[in-house]
Known about the structure:
Layout: H1 2-16, H2 24-28, E1 32-34, E2 40-42, H3 43-47, E3 51-57, H4 62-78, E4 84-90, H5 95-104, E5 110-111, H6 116-125, E6 133-137, E7 143-145, H7 149-155, H8 159-162, H9 173-186, H10 188-196, E8 209-210, H11 213-223, E9 226-232, H12 238-248, H13 251-260, E10 261-267, H14 275-285, E11 296-300, E12 306-311, H15 316-327, H16 350-377, E13 379-386, E14 394-395, E15 402-404, E16 409-417, E17 423-429, E18 433-435, E19 440-443, E20 445-454, E21 459-469, E22 477-488
Parallel strand pairs: 3-4, 4-5, 8-10, 9-10, 15-22
Antiparallel strand pairs: 1-2, 3-6, 6-7, 9-11, 11-12, 13-14, 13-16, 16-20, 17-19, 17-21, 18-20, 21-22
Amino acid sequence: MKTRIVFSIITFFCAVQLSAAGHWFSESFSENLVYKNGRVINAEKVLTGKTVAVYFSASWCGPCRLFTPKLVDFYNSCAGKKNIEVVFASSDRTPDAMRQYMQKANMPWSAIPFDAQKLAQIRRKFRVNGIPRLIVFDPNGKIISDNARWDVTLLGADAADAWKKADYKPLTYQDYREKISSGNNRNSNASANRNSNGSQWKKGPSPQWHISMDTAFAAAKRTNKKIFILTTGSDWCSWCNRLYKEVLDSRTFKTFASRNLILVYLDYPHGKQPEEQKLYNELIVKPLRIYKGAPAAFILTPDGRLIGSISGYSPLKKYMKRISNVLRSVPNRKTPRPPKWLKYPPAKLAPLLNNLKKTKSANARKAHIETEKIKSKMKFQVVAWGWSETEVNNHFSPGHVIKVPLEKRIYFKVRYQLPPGGNCRIWLRADSAYLGSPFHSGKGKGVFTAVLAARRPATEKQLKIRIALSLPESKDTLAAALPCNIIWGN
């Protein structure tokens, strides 16, 4: 208790001492910094002459807790050698939560003293709309990268060298996805062999989990237990991984499940998965009246009627309570039992799986044809721009240079025309900027206003209209490139 009180007093005292001290960090963030043990130090003394990575994170954020250990490894491997310092900017709700997070994650770096209002102003200033976020500054306070999270994830300690290169370009989530994909492709033969020979993947997260309904139904009938189905995305959903690690893999849940539940694991990863398993998982969703949540759990009677569902993540105690509440429910008597073929082994369902594969392929071809047809007839034109959503009155000319300070947002008014029957969701994109407003649902013709905000200093040579058509199996497509001349930076 004493430590908590001392830490709170120190962080509050540091916060009220904020004033300009000449150093860029003191002017933009804080004059003082605080460590996890409560020690306070002057920011200028720690950061002068160093590359500074400001880490926006919080203890309640699942993706943050997954990324923080990687950042700790990065810091320990290169901070002293490559003149780099990390500073934590907390999005926690209390000083205690911030202190406990720093101690539990064993953060070796300092933090901006806790002041909820001041930290909120910093997040607004640097447009931190989501966490974790790692903004990297050079020794003079110029932004090198607006989000270096994927640099650290993919490059590790080499990220520090990449930030010093003149041609540096931040890595993105798409780069991360491609890296995973290429890694899976390199091991595809071995993976295919493992997956086809009764193999490690088919066991799911542990031997306790079934991956097909025939064995689950047989076990439920034999033991008269309820069926617990988990739908997850093992290689892309951080909440799924957290739910399994903190709840479903706990001794409490395992003991409870061994007495009351038959466990089924339906995975929908982006990476490598046997085609047969992928089709099987899609085939059984509809007749079981479940959906592909990430994460989501569904509890069925031994004969396959849905009792209830649990969506998302909850801590162990709360999650177990949610399971108990569902188990006390009674399924609607009018709910039909699932078809008998669900109790057949996947090998016996080959005709159904082949039909599903053909249907998906036909839908994809049809969607592609329709998409191209609509794209060839749609028209987009930027007609005006402005500094606020209500005043987008400046005439837009592709040849006119628009200088946008980094602390400002720029709004564009876009006129569109779609062919009859062409419904879509529309975004405005740019190479080094992000969209701050939601998508526009387009139909027929009309006008929508979109906002762009800079991620890093750059020059835009074109704006991009990105659409998602409302067609089966359709993918997001880049429909138009509109010439422009925007310069981001002060």
